[in-house]
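Why this split exists: single-chain examples teach little about how molecules sit against one another. For that reason, every record in the complexes split bundles all components of an assembly together and asks for one structure covering all of them. Below is a record exactly as it appears in the raw files.
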Amino acid sequence: MSTIMNTVEEFVETMEPQGKSVADSEQGYHTVGEFSIAEPRISCRHVNVFYGEKQALFDINLDIGQRQVIALIGPSGCGKSTFLRCLNRMNDIIEGCRVEGKIQLDNQDIYSKDMDPVILRARVGMVFQKPNPFPKSIYDNVAYGPRIHGLASNRTELDEIVETSLKRAGLWKEVRDRLDHPATGLSGGQQQRLCIARAIAVEPEVVLMDEPCSALDPIATATIEQLIDELRERYTIVIVTHSMQQAARVSQRTAYFHLGKLIEVGQTSRIFTNPRHPLTEDYITGRFG
Amino acid sequence: MNNDANQTLEIVKSGLARRRRRETRFRWYGRIAIFIAMAFLALLLFSILARGISAFQQTYIAVDVYLNPEELAPPTPEHLGKVDFEGLIRQSLRETFPEVTGRRQKRALYRLVSSSAAYELRDWVLQHPDQLGKAVTIWVLAGSDVDMYMKGAVDVSVPEDQRRLKDDQIRWIEQLRQQGRLDLRFNKVFFLNGDSREPEQAGILVAFKGSLYMMIVTLALSFPLGIAAAIYLEEFAPKKNFWVDMVEININNLAAVPSIVFGLLGLAVFLGYFGLPRSTPLVGGLTLTLMTLPTVIIASRAALTAVPPSIREAALGVGASRTQTVFHHVLPLAMPGMLTGAIIGMARALGETAPLLMIGMVAFIVDPPQGLLDPATALPVQIYLWADSPERGFVERTSAAIIVLLVFLGLMNLLAVLLRRRLEKRW
Amino acid sequence: MQPDTLIWILLALSALAFYLGRNRAIQASSGHIRNLHSLPTYYGYFVALWCGLPALVILCLWLLFDDKLILQMVISQLPESWRNLPEDQLSLIINQIHNLVAGETGRQEVDPALQRAADHYRQLKAIGYQALTVLVLVIATASLTYGYRHVSPQMRARNSVEKVVRFTLILSSTLAIFVTIGIVLSVLFEAVRFFSKIPVTEFLFGLKWSPQMAIRADQVGASGAFGFIPLLTGTLLISAIAMAVATPIGLLAAIYLSEYAKSRTRSIVKPLLEVLAGVPTVVYGFFAALVVAPLLRDFGIELGLKVSAESALAAGLVMGVMIIPFVSSLTDDALTAVPRSLREGAYGLGATQAETITGVVLPAALPGIVSGLLLAVSRAIGETMIVVMAAGMTAKLTLNPLESVTTITVQIVALLVGDQEFDSPKTLAAFALGLTLFLITLALNLVALHVVRKFREQYE
């Protein structure tokens, strides 16, 4: 009995100092690893997010580079999705949400007065956790973005955009004969690829993906992961995932969030083989999740 | 930055101003729509209030009478019933205006006083037998035209032959007013009288009591029945059963059936088949019960579904039967919601008119009903009846009756809102 | 004994039965309630139900049918010459008898035969009540004894009581079906009698409506015309005006409130809209007749238009105002049923809020909105008081909103309010109109309910 108690105490002791370093110093913690890079596409400095009274993100500093995939990982409720939604101001539509700090896209502050969220979101597209095709035809889904932004001056151009987008999303072959069918009739994986096609039809520079595979089966997940790898050639991709394997497979850089704080960031290969922060290590080795 | 993206950005930017304008315009459409709806509400309430508020006061006129003991003794109801009190009042008026001669002028003079003045005088004498032999001044109801004039509702610029109040009468009224013999007082008559042909004597008591009795019948029937039906459908009924489906469709459809159809049902079944007496609160209440039942059922079901299933599981888990679970645990928790639904249903029933017209509650009734089987009207029906009368005095009273009705509806809804608040706090 | 005293006695007996049953159960448990199958109160309920229910059922049945029976017996004793009178005149005599029984003699001399009949009626009624009292009391005591004897520790009192409770619940829930059947039958019977006098085709396709018929058979002239088309066009005209007012305002208001307005604005405007919904229709009718119609007429004079005092426009306009909250609350429901993820999908593509609403949210909510509008139309068609007070009486076949038209509901009221005989085509026509109204609204409601059910399933 006493030996068990001893081991527990030991364990608690080993945990405590690290726990303190994160939990106690509200602002003054340091992100382990190289959060800043040369020529960043998006650069975030001292980002704090509040939902009403509750603070959801604490002093996040992170750069996101050109044409690479960065994965945001961490246990659920750690703020990774909140952070993602800051990048195209999707948090604006949530009542009581407040964002502090500076987020720059190509050296432009996206939270400044003269940045229109409409333009921002045209540049920073988004794919959501659950496939959310509009209850319209497949064609109309992909064409919706180009239509509202006036990207095509005639029907032929629009057809072209729809076709390229579907091709890039790897869906063209499957749906080209039934473009006028309702999108809700597609399978889950197809729906999610349709949503990706819909997002890239606007020619964004950055694509945000919020756990895009969490609602899908393994085969559909594999297809999407492959797609993400291909899309990297044209777009900067930020992907939130709670599957470490997925992060390891698709991303070049990985950022680990814990309780609203960015604990560690670095090359994916390095993070997964040699995590420096104990929390990261615990997470990766599966002690909690 | 790649070229495609750059180009896209330019296009998006160029269209932005136009899209932002559209956005603003769209927002304004919504604001305008709300403004129009609110403006209508304001106009409605204001026009009713402006017309009706004056009806809560009524003009009384002072008459001097000498209570001659030779004529009036003994002051018993039997004896006083035979006395010509009208003559006494007319005599008093003639004495106040000795210059008035001629039949027509005299008749115009008599019209300053309501025809009920004689009865008021008689009742007064009955209550004050000790005043016999004295000359007293008592206040009686003035005629409706005088009342309207006192409230500033008579347009004097209209040529004399086109208005009810003639120049002579106006002169007399002014004279009386200067003598302090005319006074606007709180309108008790409006709350204590039944219907009348004379606006100044008409009141809402019959309608009020009729509505009250009907609400009692409706509540006593529709609340237990509605709750029972809701409990069965939510807690006991098998899912996906043909009969249960039929019941649901019927309830939902009945909630949208025009109220007048329920009136036809009441007419054919309660009056025609069962031979219940016409114009009675019982029949009205029964008809309104059928009409409100769907509302009560739907609200009660919503209240039941709002009770979390964990409560049922907990009760079943300690070995309570399903009936016990429902009556001991689920029902008390759902009660506020059910009450809210019942009150809202009652409020709708209280304002309902059309079915009551069908079952003959449109009669002209002076005496307040003493029970469920006495003829009566209802507040909304009284409003409908008075709205048909062209006299200015009735317009005022119609609006006042509407104000009373709206106040009651407001109170009921307030009660419902408060109950709903309490309910929401619970979970 | 009067039935109401009888009911009180019955209740008292049942209360007594409750105590008897409970005490017997406690005694039978020999001091340990655990020995009983159910709690003692259930035995109490069990005996009380046995005592009260059968007697109450008998009492109700008696009260439902005694009038008819007694009346038959009285009629059979009437003089030969009266019994052979046509139905409507016979009912007049029966009415007089009823009045005599109720003590409303009036001033004129009463026919001795009538007086005899009334006395007979009174006598029968008295005998009936005596018999009823004996019957009810005997049944109550007998069944009480039966129930009491049955109380034993093994008896499943709770299950029996719960069975009765459940049966009562089922009965209450089927009431809705009975009401529907009642509506259909009551209007159908009279409507069929109407159609036996006036052909269906004439009713459905006739272009002229003037129900004023000769009051007595020997009166000359005035044979009514019962063409339903002018009423239908009138109804549809007013409903169309109402919908033209209510649809845009209700829709836009709902959109603004659910998508744009801050929660503070919402918390003020929504209750106000509910006030608009809570105003009784008779008040709207008064408002239409007294405020809106004169306003429109004055406005028409300014423009050089002739606006009727009872124009379809005034009634339709006010009806539209009445329906606004109805449309807006149903639209609101439909909009909130659209999942958030669809909105986010559109925002994520850079759509403005207006584009999201018109391009994504509204199309997704369309079935819900459409069914809401259908229900609103059904309500407009069935609305009575506004049109009774603000629309006209004469059936004119016109689509001019400035003229006066009449509606189905107005005619039902006009035909049934006031003096009526139960058999004339005039009265029966009201039921035919009622049937038509019921069928039209039923169709609209069923379609709407179906659409909304499908819509809900889509997002659940």
